[in-house]
Every structure is written in C-alpha cells, then in structure tokens.
Amino acid sequence: MRNDNKIGKLYGVGIGPGDPTLLTLKAKDALEKADIIFAPKGSDEGISVARRIIEQVIEGKKTYIELTFPMTKDKNLLKKYWKKAGQRIAGELKKGKQSAFVTLGDPFIYSTYIYLLRIIKQDYPKIEVETIPGISAFNAAASRAGFSLLEGKEKMAVLPVNETMDGIEDALKDFDTVVLMKVGAKLQKVIRLLKQKGLAKNAVLISRVGHPNEKIIRNIANIKDKELGYLSVILVKTKAG
Amino acid sequence: MRNDNKIGKLYGVGIGPGDPTLLTLKAKDALEKADIIFAPKGSDEGISVARRIIEQVIEGKKTYIELTFPMTKDKNLLKKYWKKAGQRIAGELKKGKQSAFVTLGDPFIYSTYIYLLRIIKQDYPKIEVETIPGISAFNAAASRAGFSLLEGKEKMAVLPVNETMDGIEDALKDFDTVVLMKVGAKLQKVIRLLKQKGLAKNAVLISRVGHPNEKIIRNIANIKDKELGYLSVILVKTKAG
Predict the structure, then answer these.
(1) Is B131 on the interface with A (CB under 8 A)?
(2) What was the ipTM of the complex prediction?
(3) Do residues B158 and B121 make contact, with C-beta atoms less than 8 angstroms apart?
(4) Distance from CA of B25 to the nearest CA of A (A)
(5) What pLDDT score does A11 carry?
(6) What residues in B contact A136, CB-CB < 8 Å?
(7) Domain at B137-237, CATH from 3.40.50.300, 1.10.3370.10, 3.30.950.10, 3.30.360.10
(8) Cα-based torsion angle of the residue sequence A72, A75, A77, A79 in order, rounded to the nearest 10 degrees
C-alpha cells in the first residue's frame, strides 16, 4: 500500500483487551494493509503487549516500530514523548507509508492514543486519521462473567479508583451498575467500601481479561492477593437483584 | 459441528452496531461453526437487522431461525416471547446442533439477549453458554466522531433518556463524559437541556453508527429533524476543554 504522491493514512486501531480473537475484522484488515505498525510500550527495555497480541493473528511480515511512553504522571515529560512519537509517525507517513498505531482495548477509553491523536491533529493537521473501535476491558469482562451491564432503564457509571475513592460512593448510590477501572493498589480499599455498603456480594472482579492468566472472582470479600488489583476491572450491581 | 451425544453449546454473539467489519474474529468464527443462527426481530413480518448484517461477512450456508420479540414494554407479554424463544433454542441444542444467537452491539448493553440468557439459565441450566462481547454503539460512535470517552482521572455516565429526563442533569454535573442512549422522541428535550447548561457545543450526535446512512452532527443546537433521535447516541463533554 505505497503511495509516493501523498501522505499515508494513519489508522488508530483498538485491538481489544488481550485475546487476539477479539480484534475486529476491520482492525485485522487495517493492520494487514499497513506497511508499518506502531506499538506502544512502557519502557525502552520492555516489550509491547499490543504487538505480542496482534502478532498472533496478523498475517504477512510487518515492520514494527515500538514507541516508548514511560509510566509517569508528569504531563510535561509525557508531552515530550507524545511529540517525539508524533514526529516519528509523521515522518513515516510522509514517505507514503500506510501506518497503524495499535492500542489495547478501545482507543478512546484510558488510552495513550488519545494524547497522541491530539498531538498529531495539532502538529500535523494534514494527516488523515481513522480510528477503529475496540472491545473495551469492561465489555469483555462483562461477557466473561455473564454480568449484565445495562438493561431497561438502568444507568451505568464508569470511573477510575483514586487514592481518595473520589466519586465511588456517589456512583454506588445513584447508578445501577458501577464499573471500577484502574483498581491497582487500592483493591483492599475498594473491597472495604463495598463490604460497608453491603455490595461485596453483588460485585465481580475480572483480572487480566482476555489474557491467558485471566481470573474471575465473585467472592471479592475474601480476596487476599494484593497483586490482583492490577489490570483488573470490578463490576458492581448496586440494587438487590 | 454435530455432536449426537450431548447438548450443543450456545454462543451469544455481539455483532457490533451495524458495520459488518466490526464483528470480532471470535464472533465470525463462532457464527461460521454454528449449524443454526438465531436472529432477533421486532415483528413477525419484519426482517432481522442482525441477520442482514452478518450475512454480509459469514461464509458458508447457514440455517437461520428468526425469533420475534415484539416492541412492547409489557414485561409479562415479553416474558412469554423469551420463554418461547428459549424453548425453541433448547430444542435445537438438544439435537446436538451448535447454535448462535446474534445481538446488535454488545450483548450486555440494552439487549434482548440479557433476558433470553436469564430464561435459558433458569429453564435449561444444563445448556452451556458462551457470550462473545461486541463493539457497543457508543464506542463505535466515539471512534467515528473522534470523541475521547475517558482519559486520566475522568468519569463517564451512560444512561438512557427517559420522559422525565431522570438523572441526566446530575450526570452532567458529576461526570466528565455523559453518554445518552435511547434518545428517540426526546431529542428536542435533550437539546434544550444541553443548551440551558451551555453544553450543546460540547456534544455530538451520532445517528445509525456503522450503518450506511450514518450521520455525525456536531452542532446539535440546530437539529430540526425529529426522526434523528432514533438509533442515535449523544456524547457530551461536561467540562470546557
């Protein structure tokens, strides 16, 4: 898919939470047509999880370029990395290379792609971008656990767990379904709150959904494993069912 | 995939919002392995939208059984239809037929599949069911509109629009992103509320996402078309960005 006359197109491709068969047909097609696949990773030494997932289903030899986005909350430092990544991607697109940037889950849910896209739109407004949605972790988790997210007139809140547990109590009061993301080290705090509200039995934790070591835990009141919060989603029904 | 010794397995397959290329590889595989594909429709005379979508990408001849679920809010009447559908599905599974039930979007978001699954679990507990997640309308809408759903510490509310506009005002106050589903005839009411809150310019309406007649409307304050609310999702950012 070379085109020497014009700038290549960039596909932002959501690849789902981990199971490579959860890629969409459209995502697979975009990746197979791409000359270059950009894949994010957390450090220069690390491997790109997204790359390892798609390599299992994408046919044909590809040029992979792994881009580092360090695990930091320092926005200024991150901005430098996004700018550098944008520059690298733009450079390849200007050679007429069709390209794809792969991102875990859905591209517009807690993804580095959101920031990268913003930088590309700002610094290289002529680049055409098409975003391909992906199965988000909480949709995959719901299917694995047989957990109904929304039915009838129900309302759902999706929020990250912060140190201060900000917003969770209100969400548990006002919404039928609460999806807790980025649980991490705050798992025991979440469990305590859910027990206190009498909702621990209405909750299910899905860890590493779609990955080979996926775990589904329904009796979350008894969780002792501190590491389980990482890459976990907790789904809660707030009304007696 | 016949097995005369045991009951067939049922796959509940989310097929995404309309674009057949938004099926996952797993969904396509489950449908291609199925002897029988059950597809919901709104009336005996109507056609199954889900069937029309998958027929565009599924290879091999299939036996389709269209199941009617009338458009009514009468739960007792609906329950009869779910029971009848469950009976029909169980009947085929008992013949050892591998089967799939297709459902638009994600199976666990506002779907008839949720009720059907409950009936099957209750009436036929021996039937093995596997649910395959699908791209939900709001994820697809976000990708089409280039709309960031969640980043950093943001919180998202997903809720249907009721006659009383119940919960929408609170969600607009407490959440960074609000996803309004089932807009329907209440479109003008929603637009009035968003204008009143100074949020109409932060909203985007995506109608029939993934279908050939998809529309993306960013200036929702000026919408005159009353039909546009049907099969539409409205995405709103509540903070100045």
Answers:
(1) yes
(2) 0.95
(3) no
(4) 5
(5) 98
(6) 139
(7) 3.30.950.10
(8) 120
